[in-house]
Structure formats: C-alpha cells, structure tokens
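R.M. (postdoc): so does anyone remember the format we settled on? I'll just put the structure tokens first.
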C-alpha cells in the first residue's frame, strides 16, 4: 500500500510501533490485528487531526464549545446540544487539504474504485471501559472519493448524536472536544457475516464462544434485526451446538442505487440452511481464540466470509459485559477444596492460613527429601512448595496443579496420579498436561532406574513403618510435654514468638513418619481397593471400607467413647440424669461444678477436659475456642446420649461388637471370593498382606492426625497469649485481632523487620474484609474452579464446567463408607452455632472434622456433602459402625431438617421418602 502524502490527516497500516492515539480505538485495534497476522480487508484511516482541522477552519468548534458551556445537566441537555452540533458539522465545508488527502488515499488503496465501508474510530472507542459500540453511524457500500468524503462528514456528525452525547455525559467525558477518526475499509461482498463473542455474553462462561451469523452483510445482524443462526462452541475442543434459525431476508448491496444496502428475501431451502458450515464454525472459533489470546481478554469480533470462503476480520473490541478474562489471560490455576474443607470450613483467618501455608511447604519439602529427590530438584520446585494452598474470600483451597507438579517429580507419575486423586477425594480429576512426560528411551534408561530406586527406598521404609511411627510418637510426646508445661503468661512477646518458631522447626522439619505413612496409605489403600474389585468382584467398590472397620486403638474414637461412658454414669444416677435433661448445656456448665452430689462424675469430666479439652469443631482453625474455653458442647453431647431412648445405641461394647461383626463379614466375603475364583495359590496370602498394611496405615494416619491437633492447640495458646499482650500494650484494639495478622507480620513487628508498624489499622482492615466474606449474600466460591491471569483480578471463582445432574425422584448418590440401611428423619447441622441436639436422627452436614465426632453416636446414620473414603468422618464412622455416606453433591440444598430419607451405606444412595417413622436400621 502506498503511504499517503498527508500523514497528518491519513494513516495507512503497516507502520511499526504502537498505533498513534490520533487513529482512535477501532483503527488502532485493526492495526494491531493485522500485525498479529489476522486477515483484514484493505483499509486506511482518517485521523482525528482531520476533524479538528475541519472544525477549526469552519469555526464550528467555537459554536459547539459555546453551546456545550451553556447546557444544563437534565435529560434534555444532550438533545439540545446534539441538534445544533450535528447541523453545524453536516453543514461545514471539509478543508481542501483533508479532501485531497482522502481522495489520494482512496485512489492508492482502492485503485479499482472498490466499494468501501466508512466507520467511526473515536478516541476511547472499543476500549475496555468505554466501548461506544453502536453509538456512531457506519456507511456501507460507498464508492468514489467524493462519496467517501461525504460519508466521513456524516460519521463526524454522528459523534454528536443524542445517544453518543448522553453516553459521554454519563461518564463525565468531554462533549466540546470530541476526538473522532474514521476507518475507510474495502467492502467485502459477503456471503455470510457475523459476530463472535469469545465469552458467552449471557452466562458469562469464559470457556464458551458464541457465534451469531446471517447470510449477506453483517448490518442485518448488528442493526437490521434479522434472525440469526447461533453456534455455542467449547474452547477446549471446538465442539459446538447449533441453533439454526428460519431466516426470511438478508441485506446485500443495492445494485440499482449503486450504493447502500437493500433487503432481499431468502428463497426455498436457503431459509433453513445454516449460514456457516461445520468447518467454518470451527475456523471462525479458532480465529476468535487467537484474537482473544493476543489481547488477553474476551473479545467481540465482527467478521465476513466472501464467496470464496475467505474469512475476514472487520473489527474487534473488548467484551464489556463479561467480568472475567478467562483463558486468554494465561496463568491457568485449578483450585479445589476437596478434603481440605474438612479441616478448614467456611472463612479461615489470615493467621491460620499463614501457619498452614508454611506447614505444607516445609512438610512436603521433607517428603521430597525422604523419597530421595535430589536437592537441586527440590530447589527448582520451591515455588511449587510455597504455593500448595490458596485463599479465596477467606476459604482455603488446594492449588491442584501444584499438587500434580509435585507428584510429577517422582517417577511413576502416571500410576501415582490416580492414588493421589482418590486420597484427596477429587471429584474432578485434572487432565494434567505433563510436558515433561518422558519418551520411550528416557522411560527405560532414566525413569525406570529412578522408579526402581524409589520403590526400593519405599519398601525399606514401609518395612520399618511401625518403628518409625512409634519413635515419632515418643519424640512428639516428649516435646509436647515440655512445651505444655511452660507458663505462657510469664513469657515475653519475643519469647512467645521464638517458642512458636522452635515448635514449628522442631516438629515440621521432622514430620517424616506421617509423610511416609501417608505415602504408605496411598499405595496400600489404592491396591486394596483395586484387588477388591478385580479379585473379589466388588461391584459397589465399598468392600475395602468394610474391611477397614473395627481396627481399634484409634485415638480419634477414644474421646467419644470416654464421653459415652460418662453418659452411662449419668443414666445410672437419676438426679444427675434429670439435671441433664431439664437444664440447658450452658446452665449445666455453671451448675454442675458447684453440686457436691456428683463428685465422681465431675472428676471424670475434668479428666476428659484435661486429656481432650484442646479439641473443638474446626479445631485446626486457630481462631476457634477449644472445649476448655467453652465446655457447653461437651454437656450437649452427653445430654444427647442420655436422651436417646435406645441405650444400646450408645453402648461402647455394643458399638465395638458391631464393628467386629462388619469386619468379620467383609473378610468372609473377600476371602471366599478369592478362593472361588481359583486363581494362583498365593492370591489369598498377598491379599491378606495388603489388607494388614492398609489397616495399619489408616490407623497410623488417624492417630498422627490427632498429634497434629495437639500442635494446633499449642500454637493457638501461643497466639492467644500474644494477642492479649498486644491488646495490653495498645498494639491491637482487641486480643482476637491477632488472628487477622500473619505469623510473619507478628514476628517482624517484634523483631524490627516490619514494613507496616501500624498493626491495629492493618487488623481492622482485615477484620472488615473477612467479616464481609462471612456476611456476603452471594454464594461462597465454588468447590472447584479455575483462575486466569492475576488470581484475584477478573476472576469470579465459579466452576464453568458441566453442571452436576440433579438427582431424579429425590435420589442422591455419594461414596458409601460404612454399611447399613437407615430410614428416618434428618437433622441438618451446618455449623457449630446450630442446635446440636440429636436423638437418633440421621445427621446431615456439609463437612466434619474430629471435633464433630462426639455427635456421631447420637445419630442413626451420617450423610456428609464433602469428603472422601479416607476422610476423617469416614474412618471414624466405620470404627463406630454407623452407616455413613460422604461426598454427596448438593446434599445441603436438597435436604431440610425433618425430611425423611432412606440411606444405604453400602451403595452410597440416599432417597427422600414420605414415611414419618423414627429412624431405624434395616437389616
């Protein structure tokens, strides 16, 4: 293309560098698209300088400025200014220099006197914040330099139409110094035209592309009101769903007039024919994805296809109605709260998050060391280790991609991936693109030796697992005994901070036994589950759960069994039983310690609080109060047990007998199936070995989780004491404000390395933010979602994947964890602040942690929305022999307290029924 001799008034594409502001937004976008390799019809632009020259030489600029300065702010202001400004612009003479520049550019660009489109390109037009879409006039099928000059003047005048001026006034943009360029572009005699949105403009789904198209010129779609075909395309694989409209007309060149458009009818089958072929739908979608990726945000793109099937991009602008940027922004991260929601439900404080984020980084650093990963590789994965978790609107999530990246460091990734997904309870396993997946030679020459080495190291540690766990428990108990003997109230803030650091370094950097055991569980549980299916014919995939019942000696069940024995004391003492049934738990806290009649019971209760008083619901959240601080929960649990009509339901010996029976029955079914299969002779022995190790690993895992709870109790006490000191010294407004700071901020304040010394203002700011998360009306972030670009910017934390199918006929399906069929009313308990009274109903909860266990014996069955077969609620319920189902999508929204259901703990099914009978197990 020949460069115009009047660069002040004309811009031709192909120049290097960022397009000048004088082009306006739309022309600048065309230049960028062409530079990015998109097919654009030939064009040139009349710069904003041309309009300024015309307004100044004709004196119209002064007329508009005077009129603009006198208008008011009412609804008629834009109308009054528009009438005078438009008339003045349409009546003014275009300067000779501008006319000649346009004529020369037209002859150079379109030597065949082609038809052209003349469109506006205002400064700010097609920007992310001010689109001006549809506010200015366009003129199609214009021919000849004189016609182009006239169309340019009309485009200028359209900048002063009433809608455009109103838009500017609403956004406080200037109305007396409007900068408008004009695009002159070769007109495509289109067979098909359309608009493509790279994010669904209706639903906001950034993973869908929506294409609307018509036969003929695109003006029939944009402003002609013609019926259009719609194609909804998946960005992932470009598969699409079509909605082909019955099209009666199309807009084409008015050949009789020699310019402009005319409506013509569509004849015969053309009315119901798709305006885009399947190949063209995918080609348009692919082109749109490329443009979106170039700009890094969703785009609204106009295109035309000529008679030869060539696709031309006419213009592109940001989609202003979609909040998210989506995949175009890059940096895809997948977040999921499977399993971790069991420990950190709801809004979690900044202090807790800072503690657990550091803990995960250290613990998995140790894991890599233990498994023989070279130090150089561990250093390379530093960013992965430091970002295993995320926090969104106060909720804790796994950074799933980093978990896969961490696992990828180990040989055998393809096999371990499924085990990890099962252990974490992932509902939506990630199709992880492992760019480092080795080829055939590397797998055999490098990866195979590494895998053999890993298996050998693991085998040695697995053989020593009992000794490793025993030594860990001894050393852990010694450290905790020493630290718990310290009078925290006598330590200075510096000493308290150092004590936390000492505990974290001593325990976290030596957390090897729990790590090895977790790997042990992942392997043996995964193998056991597979053998139950392949060797035992377990179609329900629940046999392995029954086999893990009745192991005994699990720390998490001991507190509840102790409470059950205390409840038996209450049942056997009539005055004490009446007191429990007649008084509220909060009143019992005050009355019982003063009543000399119940000395033996009080001693037992004090022993319980001394041993287990550090426990509570959400016990891994430092901001929660322990049972020592608020013992009413303990009284409520005992009251629940005493209120049950069937005393055998909370009889410890009967409970243990049920566990043993379930275990024995499962063993009989498993080994009988193996013998009947008549496989190789060693099958039964190997199955027994796998089973013993799976049981050992699960028991060790649960017991060491108990140790983790004790650590958090120590950390909670340290920071509560620091909060009291900070309040006393005026550093914070209140002691609990300490939970709105991070461990680093607290330590830096004490040590003199803080970048913000005003901790009270910082805590107030954080408290207000986190309070808003607790009180917000819109739903919390979804359980599984993706973020792109900057995680907290232009992401709504919503799952755009396929919606879960609604259960039919009142039925729901989850993961069966403990067998038994129960029919009866449900009691929905969402949080510790809800009514905790239970008397044989089926407990329904979103998630549970060890602090919920005392509720279990007073329930006839347990239904949990979140969780996996290895989650705490599943393991403990199996030990207690209570029919349990976890991982039931939509459970809390489907059920309300008092509804009757039938649950089958083996099949994992829940069905709403009409029966009003009390909850009862069915054999």
């Amino acid at each position: 293309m020949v460069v115009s001799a009047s660069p002040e008034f004309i811009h031709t594409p192909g120049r290097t560098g960022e397009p000048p502001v004088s082009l306006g937004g739309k022309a600048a976008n065309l230049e960028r698209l062409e530079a990015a390799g998109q097919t654009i019809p030939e064009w040139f632009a009349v710069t904003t300088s041309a309009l300024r020259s015309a307004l100044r030489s004709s004196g119209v600029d002064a007329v508009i400025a005077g009129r603009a300065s006198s208008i008011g702010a009412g609804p008629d202001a834009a109308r009054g200014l528009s009438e005078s400004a438009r008339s003045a612009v349409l009546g003014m003479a275009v300067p000779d220099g501008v006319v000649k520049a346009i004529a020369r550019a037209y002859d150079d660009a379109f030597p065949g006197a082609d038809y052209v489109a003349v469109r506006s390109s205002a400064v700010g037009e097609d920007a992310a914040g001010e689109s001006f879409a549809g506010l200015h006039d366009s003129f199609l099928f214009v021919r000849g330099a004189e016609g182009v000059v006239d169309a340019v003047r009309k485009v200028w005048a359209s900048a002063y139409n009433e809608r455009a001026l109103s838009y500017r006034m609403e956004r406080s943009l200037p109305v007396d110094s409007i900068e408008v360029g004009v695009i002159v572009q070769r007109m495509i005699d289109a067979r098909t035209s359309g608009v493509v949105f790279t994010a669904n403009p209706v639903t906001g789904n950034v993973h869908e592309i929506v294409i609307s198209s018509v036969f003929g010129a695109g003006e029939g779609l944009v402003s002609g009101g013609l019926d259009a075909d719609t194609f909804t395309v998946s960005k992932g694989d470009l598969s699409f769903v079509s909605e082909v409209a019955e099209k009666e007309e199309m807009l084409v060149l008015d050949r009789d007039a020699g310019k402009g458009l005319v409506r013509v009818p569509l004849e015969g089958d053309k009315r119901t024919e798709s305006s885009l072929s399947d190949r063209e739908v995918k080609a348009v979608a692919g082109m749109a994805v490329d443009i979106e990726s170039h700009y890094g945000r969703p785009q609204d793109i106009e295109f035309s296809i000529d008679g030869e099937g060539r696709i031309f991009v006419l213009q592109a602008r940001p989609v202003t109605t979609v909040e998210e940027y989506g995949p175009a922004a890059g940096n895809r991260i997948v977040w999921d709260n499977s399993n971790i929601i069991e420990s950190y439900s709801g809004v979690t404080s900044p202090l807790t998050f800072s503690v657990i984020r550091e803990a995960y980084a250290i613990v998995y650093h140790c894991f890599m060391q233990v498994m023989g990963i070279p130090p150089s590789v561990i250093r390379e994965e530093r960013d992965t280790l430091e970002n295993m978790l995320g926090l969104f609107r106060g909720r804790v999530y796994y950074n799933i991609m980093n978990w896969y990246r961490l696992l990828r460091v180990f040989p055998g990734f393809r096999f371990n991936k499924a085990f990890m997904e099962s252990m974490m309870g992932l509902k939506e396993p990630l199709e992880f693109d492992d760019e480092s997946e080795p080829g055939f030679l590397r797998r055999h020459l490098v990866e195979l030796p590494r895998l053999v080495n890993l298996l050998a190291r693991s085998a040695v540690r697995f053989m020593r697992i009992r000794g490793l766990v025993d030594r860990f428990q001894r050393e852990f108990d010694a450290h905790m005994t020493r630290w718990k003997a310290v009078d925290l109230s006598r330590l200075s803030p510096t000493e308290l901070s150092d004590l936390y650091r000492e505990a974290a370094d001593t325990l976290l950097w030596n957390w090897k036994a729990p790590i090895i055991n977790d790997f042990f569980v992942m392997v043996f549980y995964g193998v056991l589950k597979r053998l139950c299916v392949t060797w035992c014919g377990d179609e329900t995939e629940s046999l392995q759960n029954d086999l893990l019942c009745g192991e005994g000696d699990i720390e998490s069940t001991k507190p509840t069994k102790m409470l059950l024995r205390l409840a038996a004391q209450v049942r056997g003492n009539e005055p004490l039983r009446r007191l429990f049934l007649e008084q509220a738990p909060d009143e019992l806290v005050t009355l019982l310690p003063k009543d000399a009649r119940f000395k033996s019971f009080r001693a037992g209760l004090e022993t319980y609080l001394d041993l287990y008083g550090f426990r509570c619901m959400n016990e891994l959240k430092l901001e929660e109060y322990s049972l020592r601080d608020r013992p009413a929960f303990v009284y409520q649990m005992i009251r629940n047990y005493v209120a049950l009509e069937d005393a055998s339901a909370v009889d410890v010996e009967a409970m243990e007998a049920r566990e043993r029976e379930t275990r024995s029955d499962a063993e009989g079914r498993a080994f009988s199936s193996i013998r009947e299969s008549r496989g190789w002779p060693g099958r039964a022995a190997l199955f027994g070995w796998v089973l013993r190790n799976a049981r050992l690993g699960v028991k060790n895992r649960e017991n060491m989780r108990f140790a983790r709870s004790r650590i958090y109790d120590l950390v909670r006490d340290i920071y509560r004491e620091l909060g009291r000191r900070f309040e006393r010294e005026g550093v914070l407004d209140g002691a609990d404000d300490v939970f709105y700071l991070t461990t680093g901020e607290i330590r830096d304040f004490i040590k003199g390395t803080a970048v913000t010394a005003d901790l009270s203002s910082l805590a107030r700011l954080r408290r207000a933010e986190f309070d808003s998360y607790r009180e917000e009306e819109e739903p919390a972030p979804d359980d599984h979602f993706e973020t792109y670009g900057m995680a907290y910017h232009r992401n709504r934390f919503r799952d755009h994947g396929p919606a879960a199918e609604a259960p039919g006929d009142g039925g729901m399906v989850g993961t069966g964890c403990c067998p038994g069929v129960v029919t009866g009313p449900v009691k929905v308990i969402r949080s510790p602040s809800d009514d905790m009274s239970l008397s044989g109903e089926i407990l329904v909860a979103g998630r549970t942690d060890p602090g919920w266990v005392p509720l279990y014996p007073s329930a006839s069955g347990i239904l949990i929305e979140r969780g996996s077969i290895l989650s705490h609620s599943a393991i403990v319920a199996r030990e207690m022999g209570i029919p349990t189902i976890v991982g039931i999508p939509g459970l809390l929204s489907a059920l309300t307290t008092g509804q009757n259901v039938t649950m089958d703990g083996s099949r994992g099914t829940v069905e709403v029924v009409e029966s009003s009978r009390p909850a009862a197990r069915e054999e």
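R.M.: ...and that's the designed sequence above, right after the tokens. Also worth knowing: Residues 683-728 form the longest helix (46 residues). Confidence is low (pLDDT under 50) at residues 1-5, 127-131, 440-444.
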